[in-house]
Amino acid sequence: MIKLLTENKTLLITRAKFGFTILFVYVTLFELVLPVNKILPRPTLLWESLLSVWKDYNLIFELSVTTLVVYSSIIIGYLLVWLTRIPMFKLLSYFGDGFSNMRIFRYFPAFFYAVIFAFWFPESITAEFFFALVAVTFYMIVSIKENLETITDSHLVVANNLKISGKKLFGEIFWKNLQPAVFNSILKIHYFVWILILVFEYVGDYAGLGHVYNQALVYNDFAGLFSLAIYIALLIWFGDSVIKFTKSKIIYWEN
Fold this sequence. Notes:
Layout (H helix, E strand, L loop, with lengths): L1 H32 L9 H14 L2 H25 L1 H16 L9 H11 L4 H23 L5 H9 L4 H39 L4 H10 L3 H29 L5
């Protein structure tokens, strides 16, 4: 325990030193040496932009729209998978090969799907949410299909000895074994959904942070682009932390 705390403290100190070094180099180089450039904004301009973007782009509303779409789609997608887990496991067990053929759609660029949905449903927040929900649910189901093989014969033998079958077999044995894979897929898709929604909002000119990026480019707001990136990075980091915390509480047997 003491060794683990020491290692964590050392890691934290190392990261802090690295962060301060990067900050020092950034301030020195782009505030004093290269104040006018197209690589990174001046630190003073970036600081001003971090404060001004809230008013200039109505950021509270735009941020709320994107955040609501991303996290509501993840939560509802998980609930849909959980509610339909029994028939879904049966279908994947019996017709898994047919579903595997649908994985070809994973190779289509995300930009294509964003453009198609924007074309089908112009200026609709409902379509934006549905777009994210379809992506999240599909990715979770693909992850479940890929991890069905991890349910070993020993699990099935134990279930058979305990006379567990039917709904209880699929609803409890299968689900408990696949829950870690589902949460791992959520962690992977979390960042991917952010990209999808930002592209969707940017292409379709919907309300949201993607729309703000569009406006920042129109106004040639160089510092604003970086300010938005910082806020989005903080949101994604916070979302990742919440997902990992939730996983540790629900999948307690992995701790």
